[in-house]
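hi support,

uploading two proteins for the ticket. first:
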Amino acid sequence: MRRTSQCKTQQLPCKAKKIAFLVTDGFEQVELTAPWEQIKLAGADTELVALEEGKVQGYNHLDKADAFGVDKAISDVSASDYDGLVLPGGVANPDALRTDSNAVDFVRAFFTQHKPVAAICHAPWTLVEADIIKGKTLTSWPSLKTDIQNAGGNWINEEVVVDQGLVTSRKPDDLDAFCSKAIEEFAEGKH
């Protein structure tokens, strides 16, 4: 997997942790590769989970980027297999994930099991569909503000927001703060 370095490295606070990254075609590539690299450097095992086996297509905004090999299909995993979840953004990716009942159930299970979740950019669309943001404070790409508020969430415009194990950020420019807080939450474990 080709990666970019946009997050600061920490010691090994996530050693022995297993973190799922859930995507489908259309994810914002740097929102996968930067957290992937930093979470691995923090000592975690990572797995790329997608709707189907094979490859998923990343994008650099609207331009096709790299394809990535999927480790496991959503039908073959359970939240109980992992210590945490990362949801990269991009517009098409979370829009497709939120229409897949297996993906929505997988995401919801992290919250019912009180495991940390990190979602950036448009990824909170999947959280809205999973019906888990009521009463939570989070951020996202600004166009999701009304969706989040309509689902009972408190949307704020900040670089990174942490609320009961949920880490959210707005955009790729926030990746340093996003990665740092995600690693902290994964290291702490259940919330």
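and the second one:
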Amino acid sequence: MKTSVALSAVALAVATALGSFAGMAQAQDAPASDHSTNMRQAGSDAWITTKVKTELATTKGVSSSDVSVNTVDGVVTLTGVLPTRIAVNKAVAAAKSVKGVKSVDASGLKVK
């Protein structure tokens, strides 16, 4: 009797373990969720923002401290006040030069 109870317990443990492994295998084969896609996009957007800020910092005639940069889904939004229309155009060109930028919204960039 003890043997049959022990065997039943072992069989149940094996069946549970096999079921767990099958579930893990299915989870690994499942496509990426929207959450992980969103996380990748957020990381990409942060990288683009950093690269645009770097480009602005190295662009003559543009004070990068006067320009705020925000990126959502590859669309860069520039806001701030620059001294001339030429500086605004340079800031837009610098942002557009960054790999991954889909478009640039400079409607928030003003001239003194």
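thanks. also noticed: Residues 9-18, 20-30 have pLDDT under 50 and may be disordered.
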